[in-house]
Amino acid sequence: MKKSIIASTLTGLLLMQGCSSAPGQVATNTTEAVTQIAFAPRVQSDALEQGYAAQRSALISKVDYRLSVDFTLGDESFSGTSVITFDYKPLTTLPLTVDFYQGAVETILINGKPAEFTYSKWFIEIPSQQLADGHNRIEIRYRANYGNTGTGLHRFKDPEDNAVYLYTDFEPYDANRLFPHFDQPDLKATYLLDVKAPADWQVISNQRESRIDEQENTRHWQFKQTDRFSSYVFALHAGPFVQWQDKAGDVPLRLFARKSMAKYVKPEEWFEPTKKSFAFFNQYFDIHYPYHKYDQLMVPDFNSGAMENVGAVTFNESYISRGEKTLDARRNHANTIAHELAHMWFGNLVTMKWWDGLWLNESFATFMSNLALYKTEMFPGVWENYYSSTKQWAYGTDDSVTTHAIQLDVANTTEAFSNFDGITYGKGGSVLKQLWFYLGEDKFREGVSHYLKTHSEKNTQLADFIGALQHSSGVNLDAWSKEWLYTSGLNNIKVSYQCKDERISQFSLQQGHGEHDSTLRTQKTRIALFNEKAGKLTKTRVEDLIYRGANTDVSSLIGAPCPDMVYPNEGDFAYAKVILDEKSHQTLKTHINGVSDNYTRLMLWQSLIDGVNEAEITPMEYVDFAMANLPKEQDETIIALVVDGLEYANNVLWEARRQGKQVQEEITNVESFAWQQLKAAKPGSDLQKLWFNLYIGSVDSPSHWHTLLGFISGKEQLDGFTLDQDKRWRLVGMANRFLQGDYQRLLEEEKQRDNSDRGKLSALATEVSRPLVDVKAKWFSTIQNDAANLKLREQQFIMFSLFNNEHPELRTPYLDTIIDTIPKLNDSADDRFLVSYANAMLPSNCNHDDAELLGKLLNEWQGLKFPVVRSLKVKKERVERCIKIMDKIPG
């Protein structure tokens, strides 16, 4: 699971092997033998091309690795030996390449003899004439540097106790930063590992150790041979971790955290969701957990949410809270645990052939994690939370200029990296939920189980999965696949009806498409009719419907009582934006608190937030409506959604004020409202924490700044409320960003209070955020001239804190340098740094000048890497949408 990052699409290369079925053509067998391959030399690049991967897959098979790694050489580098055994078919005279990123190759033996080879900084080339027709053995001795970008083998030194930790993160193409090998998903292998490490370290890999030999100041770890799986889910983690243990049935569980964070870990928050998810998935898939143990590690500087390494999953340390977690935080944490565990079957046991199948891995785990939480009743509001977070992410991405089909060609591993987005996770997961509803729960489960049993330890393509669902359900999914998987964009649905004598006389569901879509799709939805009585809106009729095309008549509703409100996606099974009919919209405005069903009420509130985003209602109208109705709301998921909408609307109002519009009254009202709700909240409740967050973001007047600063000093307190360290940093950060109180002293005191790595990063961001000319000059110079001396995480904290929308004039002196720098970085920088630099440093204020500049740069920078171009497109579109909202605010 790689939550976050960018997005992509585009081009395939040569070959006739490994390509997806044409739209709507679901093959019966996608693992057929190669019929034709046009062999070509490998391109010199830091990415692996799909065409070359297919070539290599045709040449070699039965791959296995014997790996030896030495972590006792110092702070900069490690050494190793990679022994690769495989079968080779001499189908070409071109060299065979072994992937290895920017290391030093010391010696290579092929079948026991010294080999001729060439090594660029990305891969080793071995002349084909040195390889035997059949079985081969390549032994590579090498040395490589530890990484500091959170990819490959990352090294972290804890500033609190100087302890050193290592962990790996390899998806999609970073395993070759640890050891030379064939780094592509369809060349599955077994791994036999031994590691030399400092004596006080724990070493964790995909299998448990078979023996540990004690040596002077070191220990030599030897591990059992693994099952066969792809190298991107191979794992090697090491350091003086603290460990907890448990069991899920017969599967041993371990949990690891670094020593300085161990005091904040609550093992039950990890083990309980893990055990319940194990029980659910073992039964649901009808396949017992396919590996031998299950470890979960919390690691620092992690770039994503978590990663599904076989039996050795890594998690971002943000899942460790230094205060009390809310219900929402615990639910999201459990969801991530279930997501990674689902990957052990779907992704690890059965793996996509190439990265065009990434979406199915992530979409399936996204859907299954929510289904697991829902079916095991671990937490309330599972699907409501999915709707308000993951599905809105999907809708936002799909209704954007950068939308793309779910299933698309992925030309190389850089594009695979770019595909961790709202389509891959959110839309794909939502489409699978729709398919689960469309086919029926039992048929869907049978198809999934059949797929996993048929293809265990193999690589598959989309058609294998669709074929398994067709096999179980008897439903032909050719047309469904064409509509949903090979086209992009978001549909909308609304109802049209007429009544006569208080009864429905005509009813239809109408489907439209958005700005970035031209396809009308077929899916199943649930229509709910509501009638008002004594101020309550009661559900009086529910009808399931398969609709298609622009208009679908619903004759089954003719004769039903005329409704006061209709919602055409009850239960949220359809993937479509709902447009309320006029009568329903008016009913909503006066009776939203009268809707008894929480899920429906949540979706109705979302319709209002959508109205702000699309400039159909003004931020002021939303703020007034929310303040009038929210105090009566009791459901925390709904309150959280509405508060998010209030924060967004308030941010727009602050920008409107900066542009000279008369909105101070609304800004003051939000500030007062947040304070009143905070004071009224139940002591110690999740709502108290939620209202505190809104209050922090809305503080504007001197009196409330005084109150906020009082929380830092302890003079201001709330019953039941604990100002933990992370909240303290947010307050100190706000004081510095807005130059409130004795902000310099506050920062220095907080640095003394918290010398953890979190504290150091927070202190860095706090200083950088100050809207002062000398501060901007210092840190801009650091990023331009000294960034190489910083970890990626530190670089990102600086860049994203450097410029903000409150003071766009502070960026102006540096803008020409920023624009000149990005094309240079395109040719030399790490992709993550490049994308972060472009995102953070280029302006995106809500005005026509920034929109025009971004458009100009897009025209000039078409040759830049796709993630950067995509990022610019998103920024420009957001600016343009903000301008539309701003134009609705009277001046």
Q: How would you summarize this macromolecular structure in one to three sentences?
A:
The protein has 891 residues and is α+β, with helices and mostly antiparallel strands. Strands 5-4-8-2-1-11-14-13 form an eight-stranded mixed beta sheet.
Briefly note the structural class of the backbone.
alpha+beta
Give the end-to-end Cα distance, rounded to a whole number of Å: 46 Å
Low-pLDDT runs of 5+ residues are 2-35
Number of separate strands: 29
Strand content: 15-25%
- Averaged pLDDT: 93
Shape call: globular
Would you write up a description of this structure?
By secondary structure, the protein is of the alpha+beta class. The chain has 26 helices and 29 strands. Strands 5-4-8-2-1-11-14-13 form an eight-stranded mixed β-sheet. The chain has a five-stranded mixed β-sheet with strand order 16-17-18-20-19, with helices on one face. The model is unreliable at 2-35 (pLDDT under 50).
Describe the SSE topology.
Blueprint: H1 50-59, E1 60-70, E2 77-88, E3 96-99, E4 104-110, E5 113-114, E6 118-119, E7 123-126, E8 134-145, E9 152-157, E10 164-169, E11 189-198, E12 202-205, E13 209-215, E14 218-223, E15 236-239, E16 242-248, E17 251-257, H2 268-285, E18 294-299, E19 306-307, E20 312-316, H3 327-343, E21 351-352, H4 358-375, H5 382-398, H6 413-418, H7 423-439, H8 441-454, E22 459-460, H9 462-473, H10 478-485, E23 491-500, E24 503-513, E25 523-533, E26 536-547, E27 551-553, E28 565-567, E29 577-578, H11 582-591, H12 598-613, H13 619-629, H14 636-658, H15 664-680, H16 686-698, H17 702-713, H18 725-737, H19 743-753, H20 757-768, H21 773-785, H22 792-802, H23 815-828, H24 831-841, H25 848-860, H26 866-887
Parallel strand pairs: 1-11, 17-18, 18-20, 21-22, 23-29
Antiparallel strand pairs: 1-2, 2-8, 3-7, 4-5, 4-8, 6-7, 9-10, 11-14, 12-15, 13-14, 16-17, 19-20, 23-24, 24-27, 25-26, 25-28
